[in-house]
Amino acid sequence: MAVPKWPTAYWMVGNIRPIRPKCFLRAHGLECTLLSISMNPRMRLFCRLGLLSLFIVCSATALEPLAPDTEQRASIREILHKLDKRHYRHLNLDDTFSSELLDLYLKRLDPTRTYLLASDIAEFEGWRNRLDDELRAGDLDLGFRIFNKLRERLIARLEANVALLESDAKFDFDADESLPIDTDTRAWFKDAAEADDYWRRRLKDGMLRLIMSGKDAKAARELLVKRYKSQLHRASQQQSHDAFELYANAVAGMYDPHTSYMDPRSLENFQISMSLSLEGIGAVLQAEDEYTKIIRVVPGGPADKQGRLRAGDRITGVAQGVDGEMVDVIGWRLDDVVDLIRGKKDSQVRLDILPATSGPAGSSYSVTIVRDQVKLEEQAARGDVITVPSGNEKLRLGIITLPTFYMDFEAYRNRDENFRSTTRDVYNILQTFRTENIDGIILDLRNNGGGSLYEATALTDLFIDPGPVVQIRHANGKVSLDQMAEHPAAYRGPLVVLINRLSASASEIFAGAIQDYGRGLIVGTQTFGKGTVQVMTPLKQGQLKLTESKFYRVSGDSTQERGVLPDIVLPSLYDVKEIGDGSQDRVLRWDRIKPADHDTYKNVDGLVAPLIQRHEARVVTDADWRYLLETLKFAEQNRSIKELPLKRAERERLDHEREVALFDLANAQRKAKGEPPYADLAAWRKEQDTLSGEPEDAGDAALPVKPKIDLAHDPLLKETSNILGDYVGLLTKRREKLAGNATGS
């Protein structure tokens, strides 16, 4: 239930999605909200006597409708001109555009359909084919009228929530009822009564969550009051530039999800957030519904080294230091949450986290992170050597972990001959591997969100001989082929590239090139599908970030939307429906262009099928693999919940069953590995905290650092090393066969 603001700005982070509104009842010329709640006998008596009208809550806030100014009208014309002339996608400003814009705007305003009523939508339907005409003339009236309606609903609902919570109305946690949470199928509320009933249940759920987390009923109620008053304060502070930015971002979002507008204030905050002088936790955050969601943990950053946060986790509270009060941030604007998380280097911040794996009914936990800058050396490529069995032999395999594609531009500009870069560091690792007599290499690109295009090209150059690496198609339709490998390969041995859903952009360019050349084996899960290029374009007021071109592999396949598909598929730790470019609105679609002339090495020809057979036969008996599959299945089941029980006993039973199920899975894994089982739930909980990096003493700033290579707790990397071992063996047999045939001839 976030206040509609900052819809698609970026905070070290990704797109901010919109937010939501309120419902009200028009009675006697007043904006009112009718609430139905559980009342004690005294309150029912008061109502019968007509002495209490608590549940008809009239808006005390006199709303002055927001209106666009002359500069904003000029800005929308400038934005539309830039989009028309420079964006990769060419759209006509016509009735189709208008109709689709209305749908997108409403989705951003009220994505879960919990504020606006069906009667509001019916009113907006009369404007469906008018938005394009008004935009063409630089008119923003209809966009602002929709926003103002939302704002009315928002403030009315927040006031109603506060009034209910501040009354002595009781929530009956013994009643057998539930809260529907399936937003994909939810229709607009047909009237205020239906909306009121939903919100009564939602407030009840909020109370129940807090009570089950250890708070008494009074403290829980006070916290919710504080939450909604905070949102009410923010809603009442909204100005015309907030409405304009939201509407302008809906217009920009019609072209693709990576195109966005930032007004001067948003731009200033964005520049601050991206400054190297700021310290934080090293995580990419995004506003989604009422939560601040973690999109990506930055490799090498404080959160990554702490080890507990995962993509998809939601931040529900932020506290400063050891003893600071936990501030409830549900419904907050993203930039305000970011401000709380930022802080001085070496200071502590505590986060209340609702894990992605727990589903909507899960319990939260607290994690302490020591703020720091994300240093280049922490994100640098790392090389390790492991030994794996292969028949009667032992193979030495090199693992290169690459968190990002980087270059120390400052050192480069200063002509420092020893400047750090991805390619330089990986080249040095390869030279070390040469002295180690390694038999094959895994290049681990999991969670690598990209970076320098130049470095992606240069890295590819280390593994292939001269040839094209990636094609770039521009908005005018022209294709450039200037990203080329220019040197003989530095390493020609067996190569496996490990990818996952968070491998994006430059990672996809590298993996796609290796696959297209037949140079190595691609293992893992489908990548993110970020195959577009954005540029920042200055405006008279703010800036426009727009998609100007699109990446294509040398095969002609785009990396957009589809990403890179692995040769051997491993289980995904992330929900592909929620994470990835294809999960967003208005994405540019996958397509193909003419292939570029390139060689093929045929290193994997005919080997994928036998490698898959061996992989599938091996994991059947692997305890860690079975545990991984069962936990992923368990998480999916939790995410699929459509309704939350509001009966406390039922909710506690479900929580206990979830915990016992995970406990049983862990003990089954230990038994299969010949390890002693956990004695009880308490022992299991303690071990989970240890493995996740949760410090026993929240006041201890010396948090544990994750080990470099930990195959025991990384079944995906462990199995990839086994696949590489098989791959090395098959390549060896093929070479021996070819050599024998040559000798025989």
Secondary structure topology:
Blueprint: E1 25-27, E2 30-34, H1 41-48, E3 56-58, H2 70-86, H3 95-109, H4 118-125, H5 131-136, H6 141-166, E4 178-180, H7 192-212, H8 217-236, H9 240-253, E5 260-262, H10 264-273, E6 283-288, E7 291-297, H11 302-306, E8 314-320, E9 327-328, H12 334-341, E10 348-354, E11 365-370, H13 376-379, E12 382-390, E13 393-401, H14 409-413, H15 422-436, E14 440-444, H16 453-461, E15 467-474, E16 479-485, E17 495-499, H17 506-516, E18 521-524, E19 532-538, E20 543-552, E21 568-569, H18 608-619, H19 623-639, E22 643-645, H20 648-672, H21 681-692, H22 715-744
Parallel strand pairs: 13-14, 14-17, 17-18, 18-21
Antiparallel strand pairs: 1-2, 2-3, 4-22, 5-20, 6-7, 7-8, 8-9, 8-10, 10-11, 12-13, 15-16, 15-20, 19-20
Helix pairs in contact: 2-9, 3-9, 6-8, 6-9, 7-8, 16-17, 18-22, 19-20
